[in-house]
């Protein structure tokens, strides 16, 4: 059997990280088994579905590289097919026309609530209380329509809904790929609506029809849908269709164990892109949120596709850990191609103004050695601040202290040594600094601070010799001369 999975978001909001993880799991499972990964936009909620949300979902999927194997299916466009199936079920006797009105159903619920409140009254006997609670539960529990067994219509032109004839009794069992064997009583299921009184199909019907018609063999989704599975399987049975295998994944929680919310970082997937995370890092992190393969922490796309399996999904909810995400992002930034990484950094590098040619050349030269200077793209971009055109350089308190007295004299002496270099490279610069220290009986701890202060103003920077090389002879000597001149005024 060829494996076909699907991701079916509703375009009533952005693609959040929980949805992105669901999409990733479905994508990887299909790739692992050389199957198909499909995308369906469940836009049947016409009031809340928006084109903007649909576009954002598609953009988020594209950013993550979770490309569907076929053109996305828009669920609302299939309303005619959903109606066709509902009417077919009526002809089979597995669904029926129900003439209960919204007013009657509301009155039923209100009566049930009245009986529940009456059971709490003082002075009633235990028998009366038991009777009232039983009646309340019957009225407030799963609805079994009086028309399920063929009762006549109240009138020839009475409006109606089409409801599924729910299973009559016994256990209902789902063998779930993550949750194991899950069992409920059939009496817990209601005669749910398939077609509303206005003729529009419900979500429950549309999902099943679409999954069947798309050939979906495995449904991997959040465990908040587990209850829906018990309601959807009877539709498959009513139509004589093959039932897909289900795997319900625990939801993602915040670091405190509570349900994930915006205060924990439950942002849209594209928000993480704007925060400076790489798509491969986001995927590697989401993969480990609730799935494991031995002790391995970081997976490439190819490794994930080769190893992912439902059996590795944990039953316990995963906890969002932005510090861990940062570590993984830092790893993938170090692994990134220099040209691609520079392109990703450029928006942050140019947040205030466009880079000059000189700045671009310096940053490109430094990039291979400075990839480990941040956990996000903006953070890494900030590490290159000392390579921008910042003359006259602004000194922080520590840098000003390093350029006083003997520090300034040592900088001037080193300046003469550097000026004589025939070749400007980190190797020759390092050698010249070492020679100067030896000749003057100084340590690097005495020479380095004033030199670093003059070059960076106290901004964080790596080893001083590469810094001098990246800046270039003219820029480096200019910064040194600026501080010497200022110090001697």
Automatic annotation (TrEMBL):
Record's signal peptide: none
One GO MF term attached to the UniProt entry: zinc ion binding
Gene Ontology terms: cellular component: cytosol
Organism classification: Bacteria, Pseudomonadati, Pseudomonadota, Alphaproteobacteria, Hyphomonadales
Positions of transmembrane segments: none
Enzyme kind, highest EC tier: ligase
A Pfam family recorded for this sequence: tRNA-synt_1c
InterPro entries in the record: aa-tRNA-synth_I_cd-bd (IPR045462), aa-tRNA-synth_I_codon-bd_sub2 (IPR020751), aa-tRNA-synth_I_CS (IPR001412), aa_tRNA-synth_I_cd-bd_sf (IPR008925), Glu-tRNA-ligase_bac/mito (IPR004527), Glu/Gln-tRNA-synth (IPR000924), Glu/Gln-tRNA-synth_Ib_cat-dom (IPR020058), GluQ/Sye (IPR049940)
Purpose: Catalyzes the attachment of glutamate to tRNA(Glu) in a two-step reaction: glutamate is first activated by ATP to form Glu-AMP and then transferred to the acceptor end of tRNA(Glu).
EC numbers on record: 6.1.1.17
Sequence similarity: Belongs to the class-I aminoacyl-tRNA synthetase family. Glutamate--tRNA ligase type 1 subfamily.
Motif annotated as 'KMSKS' region, chain positions: 259-263
Motif 'HIGH' region: where in chain: 9-19
A Gene Ontology biological process term: glutamyl-tRNA aminoacylation
HAMAP family: Glu_tRNA_synth_type1
Keywords: Aminoacyl-tRNA synthetase, ATP-binding, Cytoplasm, Ligase, Nucleotide-binding, Protein biosynthesis
Reactions listed under catalytic activity: tRNA(Glu) + L-glutamate + ATP = L-glutamyl-tRNA(Glu) + AMP + diphosphate
Keyword Cytoplasm: yes
Protein name, entry field: Glutamate--tRNA ligase
Subunit structure: Monomer.
Binding-site residues, ATP: 262
Primary localisation category: cytoplasm
Aminoacyl-tRNA synthetase class I anticodon-binding domain ranges (all copies): 344-483
Residue ranges annotated for the Glutamyl/glutaminyl-tRNA synthetase class Ib catalytic domain, each copy included: 3-325
Compartment(s): Cytoplasm
